[in-house]
């Protein structure tokens, strides 16, 4: 549809009294059979879908504002607005609404909703009493005028009548001329009356009156009237602030006079609303809704006019990135963009999308990359605010820019690395800027907002880029403050001596890394393993700053929470529970957050039954932990450990008695469990002669038994799905420390100075079982059977690892 007169935007007022854009389309008025009346229809210009279908009700109050707006309420707390592209279209639809309601199109509002009692009261009054008769605009009558304005505020109908009277014959301008007379005469009583009058007129909530009061030749007089609050001993100096203190700076000359006037007007009206007018009471809060709308639509218009002036924005960007630009000028340019982006928050999603795309096309991110690296703190702070607007609006846009940057030899010039550097070098003792930047980084690396169907590879590509070029910059302070040598001993005393600000920075970095563990499973796992990162982080368990020790513990807790055996093996091999248990023991019996957090870590391992970690903890640390009895966590871990050993024993028992073809093993095992437990065990063995049914497998088993009797260090050969056997070896503390050979040969069972191995209670022929790997168990009740089997089937000893 090419008729621009009927082109409109549909707005609804949300709970925060802000206008939400529901879309752009074309409006028409037509009879709708279903609604049984003339209705307003708005169809979207993009796809023709119905954006609005609203019956013109005879009792609904429609209001016309600023020549291009029609506002009304359809239900309680549900306000609607049509913003027309052209005044002619607004007038056309307004005439249609007035025609349906039988009203004069010259009115700015068709009617106000009133309660029945007020309606009845006015019906009983003579017709002439409906008219509000204003006293002559004279100094002597100011008190009478003030009383009249104040008295009508409680009545919607009288407010409307008073507004019509004030708009006629230039009454408001005459009142404001009286203000100048009173001020020249220093007539305080008259000035106090004018304060009540102007405040009351603002509460009439009429857009037509605002147009007059906020015009260039009236607005400063309005501000002047509001300076003379009767409750104040001395008047405020708002005009002095607006004309002398608050200076309008044109970073680039604005040639459009209408745009300049709109910027001035919006600033001053915002000042009236936020600074001059007192906070409205519960009964007055709706009196200024039109004022809020006036400011909102002004801001929308300003952003649109600036956005359309590409020459202006291009010049701003050129000066912002020009090395020859003076520092003071650059500071003003950055502050302009900050205000520009703040104004854009009033736009609705579609308009904001176009706004930020315009900035992106003009090179806003390249400019930020330059100014965020400057020494000027004000410039950096403003640039950070602009960057936060961009990230919150479209993280994907920022990620796309970052990945398209030319790969410099120096990674520090990349935008994300510039952001990380700003976070690390924040001079604020409370790290306010670092906290803000860390939140932005978290948004950028969050996979939850990388799921756009338009770019399915975004997650993989960006995370690969981040871990390749940026992660080492992020973790540099952490690694620098946890320096250790090849024996994992802390070098120097830096870890104990860094200040509170450094500790806060390390805590922020750990918080981000903890987030990565939860959301970046593969990339962060590789990084932790390659850098031995957990060991370095656990050095911070010795920190004098308890909050930092808790951050380190939280990092380990999140890793264990993944229940990933790669992580578990890494922790076991590195003996990484040692600093945690040392901290627990050093903490003694003090009941504090650190104590509770460490116990919760072990409680989680127990409840989730993470077998490899349970075996490692009990084998190496139980003697040190068994004295802790104020919680049952460690006794519970010991119980889990014993239960697992019993299960392994039973499993070996079954495997000794019933060796079957692998394809039928599960079925036969299930049948065995269903048999009566009271059956004689000897009879069961007699019925199923392994040596007769499976002579080859049985022979291998007997040979393996001989190996077991001759070498205590070897484990029982485990049956593989192919029918062959393989050997596994127990992990000693030495193996956990990396002394187990790479060729798979068993290491000697040694005990580290910090470990507390549990003594084995098995028979002499049973090797010590360490980490939960299945070990040999001797069965006293099978000795006779073993001797008989050995006599019947002597065989060659199988080779290790076969």
Automatic annotation (TrEMBL):
Domain PP4R3 EVH1-like: 5-101
Listed GO CC annotations: nucleoplasm; protein phosphatase 4 complex
Pfam families with a match to the protein in the record: EVH1_PP4R3, PP4R3
Extent of Low complexity compositional bias: 733-757
Compositionally biased residues, Basic and acidic residues: 702-717
GO molecular function: protein phosphatase activator activity
GO biological process: DNA damage response
Serine/threonine-protein phosphatase 4 regulatory subunit 3-like central domain mapped to chain residues: 144-643
Location of the region described as Disordered in the Swiss-Prot/TrEMBL record: 667-802
Residue ranges, compositional bias (Polar residues): 721-732
Homology family: Belongs to the SMEK family.
Purpose of the protein: Regulatory subunit of serine/threonine-protein phosphatase 4.
Designated name of the protein: Serine/threonine-protein phosphatase 4 regulatory subunit 3
Source species: Esox lucius
Organism ancestry: Eukaryota, Metazoa, Chordata, Craniata, Vertebrata
């Amino acid at each position: 549809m090419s008729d621009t007169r009927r082109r409109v935007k549909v707005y609804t007022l949300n709970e925060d009294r802000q206008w939400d854009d529901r879309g752009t389309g074309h409006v028409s008025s037509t009879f709708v059979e279903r609604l049984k009346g003339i209705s307003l229809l708005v169809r979207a210009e993009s796809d023709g879908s119905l954006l609005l279908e609203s019956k013109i009700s005879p009792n609904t109050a429609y209001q016309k504002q600023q020549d291009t707006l029609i506002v009304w309420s359809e239900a309680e707390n549900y306000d609607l607005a049509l913003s027309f592209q052209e005044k002619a279209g607004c007038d056309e639809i307004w005439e249609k609404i007035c025609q349906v309601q039988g009203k004069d199109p010259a009115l700015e509002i068709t009617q106000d909703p009133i309660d029945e009692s007020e309606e009845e009261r006015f019906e009983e009054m003579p017709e002439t009493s409906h008219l509000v008769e204003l006293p002559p605009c004279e100094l002597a009558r100011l008190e009478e005028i003030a009383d009249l304005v104040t008295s009508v505020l409680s009545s919607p109908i009288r407010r409307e009548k008073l507004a019509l009277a004030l708009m006629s014959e230039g009454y408001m301008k005459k009142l404001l001329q009286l203000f100048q007379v009173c001020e020249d005469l220093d007539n305080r009583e008259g000035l106090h009356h004018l304060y009540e009058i102007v405040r009351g007129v603002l509460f009439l909530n009429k857009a037509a009156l605002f147009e007059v009061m906020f015009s260039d030749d009236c607005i400063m007089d309005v501000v002047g009237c509001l300076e003379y609050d009767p409750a104040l001993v001395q008047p405020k100096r708002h005009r002095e602030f607006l004309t002398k203190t608050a200076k309008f700076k044109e970073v680039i000359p604005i040639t459009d006079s209408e745009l300049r006037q709109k910027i001035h007007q919006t600033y001053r009206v915002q000042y009236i609303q936020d600074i001059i007018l007192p906070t409205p009471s519960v009964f007055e809060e709706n009196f200024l809704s039109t004022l809020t709308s006036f400011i909102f639509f002004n801001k929308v218009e300003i952003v649109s006019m600036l956005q359309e002036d590409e020459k202006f924005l291009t010049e701003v960007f050129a000066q912002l990135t020009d090395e020859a630009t003076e520092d003071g000028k650059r500071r003003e340019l950055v502050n302009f963009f900050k205000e520009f982006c703040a104004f854009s928050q009033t736009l609705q999603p579609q308009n904001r999308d176009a706004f930020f795309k315009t900035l992106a096309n003009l090179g806003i991110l390249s400019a930020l990359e330059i100014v965020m690296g400057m020494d000027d703190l004000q410039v950096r702070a403003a640039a950070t605010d602009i960057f936060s607007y961009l990230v919150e609006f479209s993280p994907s846009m920022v990620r796309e820019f970052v990945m398209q940057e030319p790969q410099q030899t120096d990674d520090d010039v990349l935008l994300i690395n510039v952001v990380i550097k700003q976070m690390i070098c924040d001079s604020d003792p409370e790290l306010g800027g670092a906290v803000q930047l860390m939140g932005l980084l978290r948004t950028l690396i969050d996979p939850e907002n990388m799921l756009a169907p338009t770019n399915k590879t975004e997650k993989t590509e960006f995370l690969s880029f981040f871990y390749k070029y940026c992660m080492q910059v992020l973790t540099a302070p952490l690694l620098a403050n946890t320096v250790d040598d090849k024996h994992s001993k802390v070098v120097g005393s830096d870890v104990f001596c860094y200040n509170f600000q450094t500790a806060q920075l390390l805590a922020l970095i750990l918080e981000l890394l903890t987030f990565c563990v939860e959301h970046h499973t593969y990339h962060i796992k590789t990084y932790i393993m390659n850098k031995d990162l957990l060991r370095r982080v656990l050095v911070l368990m010795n920190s004098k700053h308890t909050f930092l020790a808790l951050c380190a513990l939280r990092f380990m807790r999140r890793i264990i929470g993944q229940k990933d055996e790669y992580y578990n093996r890494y922790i076991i091999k590195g003996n990484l529970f040692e600093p945690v248990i040392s901290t627990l023991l050093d903490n003694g019996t003090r009941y504090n957050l650190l104590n509770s957090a460490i116990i919760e870590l072990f409680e989680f391992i127990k409840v989730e039954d993470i077998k490899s970690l349970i075996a490692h903890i009990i084998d190496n640390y139980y003697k040190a932990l068994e004295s802790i009895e104020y919680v049952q966590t460690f006794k519970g871990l010991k119980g889990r450990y014993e239960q697992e050993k019993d299960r392994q024993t039973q499993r070996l028992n079954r495997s000794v008695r019933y060796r079957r073809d692998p394809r039928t093993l599960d079925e036969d095992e299930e049948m065995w469990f269903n048999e009566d437990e009271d059956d004689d065990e000897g009879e069961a063995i007699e019925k199923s002669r392994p040596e007769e049914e499976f002579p080859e497998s049985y022979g291998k088993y007997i040979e393996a038994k001989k190996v077991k009797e001759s070498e205590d260090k070897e484990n029982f050969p485990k049956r593989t799905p192919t029918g062959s056997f393989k050997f596994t070896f127990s992990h000693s503390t030495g193996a956990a420390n990396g002394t187990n050979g790479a060729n798979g040969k068993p290491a000697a069972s040694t005990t580290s100075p910090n470990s507390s191995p549990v003594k084995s209670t098995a028979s002499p022929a049973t090797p010590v079982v360490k980490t939960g790997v299945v070990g040999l168990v001797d069965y006293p009740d099978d000795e006779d059977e073993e001797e008989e089997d050995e006599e019947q089937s002597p065989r060659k000893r199988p080779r290790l690892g076969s």
